[in-house]
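Researcher: Re-running this chain for the archive, since the previous output was lost when a drive failed. Same request as before.
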Amino acid sequence: LHGVNKRLIHADTAVVAAGRSAGTCPNAPAPRMGDDKNSLPVGPHFLESEWVLWEHRAPDKNSKSYEDNMAKLCEVATVEDFWRAFNNVPKPSQIFYDGKTRKRFANRSVESFSLFKKGIKPEWEDAANRTGAEWFCRKMFPAPQLDEFWRDLVLGMIGETIDPGDDICGARVVDKSTGTRQMYRLELWFK
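Model: Regenerated structure tokens:
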């Protein structure tokens, strides 16, 4: 995925991946051009699908179910919304176990982040996931590589460059570390 979504990586030059502009999405306003006739359309740049960013917290004594530990962080519908959210959520390497300490973010310990299409919860009990599958990679990644893989995976999803058949429901990055062993998991969930 490295390099696939360079257009989405820089918000100041953002145009939805695969050459689609805001004017090609259903219900999106026609693009406005900047002063220069060669400039990119002025935002907002609508995504083909809306997405929800979730946080999965470590269970505590009050948790009764998996869903008790999920928290919806935000919804994104445009490239600008995505970068506003993504740049203000800690990177996995900043809060996952680093081989020395289990870190806390604010008042909680976070075990994973998920980005799923709006209307689909990041749990197998959701109707869209119930008969689906997942692709995953479990490995000890160096911190910068973990962050880069997570970023590139979500950019591929929201930019619709890795899912021409509209089969992807979402993705997760999970801290699977145990004892003193660092282990992380990247997951891609399908219908």
